[in-house]
Amino acid sequence: MARYTGASCKLCRREGQKLFLKGNKCYSQKCPFEKKGYAPGQHGRTKRFKQSEYGMQLREKQKVRRIYGLLERQFRRYFQLAERKKGITGENLLRLLELRLDNVVYRLGFAPSRKAARQLVRHRHFQINGKLVDIPSCAVNVGDVIQVREKSKKLDTIHASMRRIKEGRLLSWLSLDKANMSGTLLEVPNRSDIPVNVNESLIVELYSK
Fold it and tell me: What pTM was computed for the model?
């Protein structure tokens, strides 16, 4: 499968904000974005022209794609699913992306980043309702219990990541049982409960042309 193999920090610099693609490094002073907040490339420091309407829409779409680690074809498929659902298309899109297994694993604190969560899922370290799942894009439903596989409970990567989840820091639509290393999806999140700094309406406008 095709995947991005370049420097993750360049993606943050291109979008002009932290996308938190490198886990704990993004929260430290070692984050390259702290030192180089300008766009990558030889013209990154130069003054840019005013962005067109299309340019703003494109950047917003690219930003969401990069946050969730999706290719263009995958992203378009999610958008088409969001269009078919009742409600606001942009909000439906973000909900579908948030309910991916790799994202839920990341939100529960079992992985330092979505990229790491994707790898852990592919290596069969997680179960949903007692069944092994190795598909990162698997949709999590309300009431589903995501648990670290018994043989994987001693993984240093998971334990180190769980330390960053403090009391009161977990999202309201998730519950976490640290002792059993499991989490439950309590409800489908509202837009206000999704901590992603994007304007999803611009994406809808882009694909509606």
Answer: 0.81
Q: What is the pLDDT of residues 117-147, one digit of tens each?
A: 999 999 999 999 999 999 999 999 999 999 9
Distance, in Å, from the CA atom of 190 to the CA atom of 105, rounded to the nearest integer, reads 19
Map residue 128 onto helix, strand or coil: strand
Backbone angles phi, psi at 20, to 5 degrees: 55, 55
Best CA proximity match to 196, nearest among 24, 31, 65:
65
> Position 71: which residue type?
L
Q: Would you say 57 and 206 are in contact if contact means Cβ atoms under 8 Å apart? A: yes
Q: Sketch out the chain's domains with CATH numbers.
A: 8-97+195-207 (1.10.1050.10), 100-187 (3.10.290.10)
d(CA 139, CA 104): 9
Of 168, 169, 173, 170, the closest CA to residue 191 belongs to 173
